[in-house]
Design a protein that fits this description.
The chain starts with a helix and ends with a helix. The chain is elongated, with a radius of gyration of 21 Å. The chain has 111 residues and is an all-alpha fold. It contains seven helices and no strands.
Length: 111
């Protein structure tokens, strides 16, 4: 399933098959055959080239688990809310103050 893993990571990085092949210096046709599981045993040299372009370790390509994300992904609604706050003139400091107040409010015992 390494081909599907490469394909998913490529798409997660917003790269087309052509872009990844060109950046890695490999044949597009070979990359395509790997992604479609026609070729199942790519060389370590091939994997190193792919991993380098995708900014990951080769181990992550070989790992069957879902890639662990170092950052939380935001859905469109959160991004839109943040943009709306910025456009309305709310500063980062004001937003942080609101978050701190809200945390305090939620932790305060109810009377």
């Amino acid at each position: 399933m390494i081909g599907k893993r490469i394909q998913q990571l490529r798409k997660d990085n917003g790269l087309t098959l052509t872009q990844l092949a060109e950046r890695a210096g490999i044949a597009k046709s070979y990359l395509s055959s790997i992604e479609r599981d026609i070729q199942k045993n790519p060389s370590i040299h091939f994997l190193e080239k792919i991993a380098d372009v995708l900014n990951i370790d080769v181990k992550e390509l070989l790992n069957d688990e879902e890639p662990k994300e170092n950052k939380t992904t935001l859905d469109k609604e959160w991004i839109d809310l943040a943009l709306e706050a910025m456009e309305s003139g709310i500063s980062k400091e004001q937003f942080r103050e609101f978050l701190e107040f809200n945390k305090w409010r939620l932790q305060k015992p109810k009377q």
